Amino acid sequence: MQLSDRLQSLPPYHFAEYARKIAEKRAAGVDVISLSMGDPDLPTPPEVLDALAEAARQQVNQRYPEYAGMPELRAAFAAWFAQRFGVELDPARETLPLIGSKEGLAHLPMAVINPGDVALMPDPQYPVYGTAVALAGGVSYDLPLDHERDWLPNLAAIPTDVAARARTLWLNYPNNPTGGTATLAFYEEAVHFARQHDILIINDMAYSEVAYDGYRPPSILEVPGAKDVAVELYSFSKAYNMAGFRIGMFVGNASIVEGMTRLKSNIDTGIFRPIQVAAIRALALPESWIAERNAIYQRRRDRIVAACHQAGMAAPLPKAGLYVWPRIPAGRVSTQFALDLLDSTGVAVTPGSNFGPGGEGYVRISLTVPDARIDDAVARIAGAVASLA
Ligand SMILES: Cc1ncc(COP(=O)(O)O)c(C=O)c1O
Question: From CA 34, how far away is CA 120, in angstroms rounded?
């Protein structure tokens, strides 16, 4: 049977390919420590699980859920947003639940991009952006993210004819994979740029609640007037260790929220209500829960960064996110380097080029494995210093 031209034109999802390589190693008896996925290993809070179980027993929750989510969940989104960022949202017009933020990112281009429209994209990037834009017939224009510019795109360098054809600007802070963070000053500049060129900003905030050393990432919606030009996506996966639940949050510009609601009502039929009830419970967790959880990741971050330095790889200390992004030894290609590391140590990291050409020269190391395994990985990397260069 024939697959569509559209599907055939998709690039391979490198993470799936790499997962196959890891599985092969494991099948061959290698004790692989995979630091290649941002899949939180820490448990979902028990009160969230209780809320899920209790809601699942109620028959009303076993029927079709609302297309646009439970009104109680949308109210909880708005209440959380007001408390966290000091920004008021209209729950009915400016919020929408997603089946995980990946679902929202993947469907959004169908609501906002016409064939041939330019999408301004970070490079490196979470690969779903480019694929989703291509599926909608859009064309990506890459904006390099460099360490020298604190991993922020240089909006002033975008040629005027490109800006004129652009319909969307994709941002992601805290950034995957670089660990970069955005200042409010940068968000102000982005909002100004978007207004000037009539562009929608899509800010992926999947890592909004994973931050270190007391840092709290801001929302672009804190910029006055940002709602005119911006939407944001949030993830319960990373914020509350709920990756398996598949729930996310879409907020911002009311007409885009309405468009996404219309699009999604033609594609999916909402989210299992008990998952929404669990999300409401998660949003009520105290700030101290977030701080304690982040302290665990922070210790792991420090150990991994130290191990990278010991192995001769420069690695900035990320202020947020679930990854360390070290430079690999000069002259090495990231896919081969990651394979060599896997072969020589059994430690799996993600080649930087999986995130686009701008990721070449780096690997991404995830913090989502238990402490004892991190220790083991650190020891293995340190032992392999000579063979890595
Ligand atoms: C930058 C970024 N955005 C979105 C997602 C998707 O998260 P989820 O669909 O679990 O909410 C991920 C997952 O790794 C991510 O790294």
Answer: 32
**Do 116 and 264 share a structural domain?**
yes
Q: 71: closest CA among 89, 97, 103, 47?
A: 97
User: Which residue's alpha carbon is nearest to atom 14 within ligand 1?
Assistant: 38
Same domain, 103 and 181: yes
pLDDT exceeds 70 at position 263 = yes
Residue 192 and residue 135: Cα distance in Å, rounded?
29
SS3 233: strand
The pLDDT assigned to 39 comes to 94
Question: What is d(CA 227, CA 220) in angstroms, rounded to the nearest whole number?
Answer: 9
Residues 189 and 269 in one domain: yes
Instruction: Flag whether pLDDT at 277 surpasses 90.
Output: yes
Q: Which domain holds residue 367?
A: 5-44+288-388
Residues of the chain above pLDDT 90, percent = 89
Which residues contact residue 335 at a Cβ distance below 8 angstroms, ignoring those fewer than 6 apart? Answer: 351, 353
Say how far apart CA 129 and CA 233 lie, in whole Å.
13
Binning pLDDT at 50, 70 and 90, where does residue 386 land?
A: low
Residue 371 CA from chain centroid, whole number: 23
**pLDDT computed for residue 364 by the predictor:** 97
Residues contacting residue 325 through CB under 8 Å, at least 6 positions apart:
177, 178, 179, 315, 316, 318, 352, 362, 363, 364, 365
Out of 123-132, 220-229, 379-388, least confident range? 379-388
Spacing, Cα 273 to ligand 1 middle (Å): 21
Going by CA atoms, what residue is nearest to atom 16 of ligand 1? 176
**What is the residue type of 208?**
S
Q: How distant, in Å, are the alpha carbons of 89, 235, 258 from that of 128? A: 27, 15, 22
Residue 333 has pLDDT above 70, yes or no: yes
pTM for the model? 0.96
The domain tally of the chain equals 2
Cis peptide bond upstream of 124, omega within 30:
yes
Residues lining ligand 1, Cβ inside 6 A: 38, 100-102, 126, 172, 176, 204, 206, 235, 237, 243, 248
CATH code (residue 253): 3.40.640.10
Q: What residues have CB less than 8 Å from 257, skipping those under 6 apart?
A: 93, 94, 95, 96, 231, 250, 251
